[in-house]
Structures are given as structure tokens and as C-alpha cells.
Amino acid sequence: MTSQEPIKVLLKGMADLQESSDHSDLTITCGSDVYKVHKAIVCSQSEFFHLTCRNHNDPDGDFKEGKTGVVDIPARSDIDAEDLKYVKLMIHFLYHMDYLEVETAKIEAGTSPSVSKDYAIGEGILIHHAMMYAMGDKYGIPGLKSLARSKFQDTWKHTAAGLVKAIKIAYTSTVDSDKGLRQVIVENLYSNVPNGLSTWIQMPELDECIKDLPELSYALLHKQLSLPY
Description:
The protein is mainly α. The chain is 53% helix and 6% strand. The protein has a 3-stranded mixed beta sheet. Strand 1 and strand 2 (33-37) form a beta hairpin.
């Protein structure tokens, strides 16, 4: 048995638990979606679920979810609601240590991001990784944030699809002190194209995005001046 075998066995066991719902002791609902999950798995990885599921015997357990065993995440209908597909991916991550790709990007290995056509940055896969980073931040799941950041970085080496919306998500869904994904964005705006930032600025959609986000403008200026940001 190799050193990786026990990890594979553990991950398979966790995945099987999600599929079968055996020994489930917590229900998560989001719209019409219902997930039978396990406190030992979700609460150990998520600060949100850890706090929410404290029972009434805990002096700090004032949430009704700790008594009912049901956590309802509002489906998208207001500013605090979630997109059902991203809740599904978040729960998938908690059992698989990875999340499924919602959209398959056709990436040609060894190519740099396309910056010649505006549509290349309008819609696409970077949005999904930015959203998963935001979900990891909101629900206190450090592992999900780390994975989403890595996927964002690796994907951007090959495609800029969804870049503008992804940038907006990164700068509006996390606090200013959270530099994880923001740093990736700033560094890549300079390093992933031959002529640096000037090449991106020629794209109206991205130029407008930078104007609308003072924090990003500040970071880009400091990067250009070799100052900390």
C-alpha cells in the first residue's frame, strides 16, 4: 500500500457517505434541493455550520438549527441568497475535497490568455472559481478558498473567459483585508500578457471594471510603483 492509499480510501468513504446519506444527522436545504449530510464532516470544515449547529445544551448554542437539525440556505431571491448550483458545489467539496466544474472550458495547453477579443472576458469559467472562493469565505471553509484560488490561477494561464465578472465578484464578495484572490488578479494582470497592464486597458469592459473598483485601481497603482498593496 502506497502512502496515498489511506487518503484515497478515506475520500472514497466520505464520497460514499454523501451518496448514501447513511448516518446523516443534519439536513441542508436550499430552494427545492435537500442534502442529507453529517455534522462531523461539514461542521469540522465550515465555521458557519459549526456555529449554526451548536445544540441547546451548549451555552453558546442559540440557533434553532442546533435543535431542529435543519439548516435552510435561502435560494436566490434577495441579496443574501445563494445560487443553488454553488451551494451544491460547496457541499460536494466538503465530501470530495474538490468541486465539480459547472462549465467545461476548452483550454489549449500551453497557450496564454486571449486578450484580443472582448467576448473572451465576458462570460466563462473564471466566474465559477471566483464564486466558489466567495462561498468558501462566506461559510468559513478555508480549504475551499484555497482550492478555488489555485483553480482560478491555473485556469487563467489558459483562458481569460469570465474575467471581468470574476474580478467584480472577488472585490465585492470579500472584505478588503482578504487578499487571497485579489492578489492573484493583480499579479496576473501584469504577468500574463507580454505588454503588461496596458494590453488589458485596451479592452473597454475591463477598463470600465477597473474604474468602478477603487480597491483594484489602488492595488494596480501600487504594483506599478513596486509598493505593497
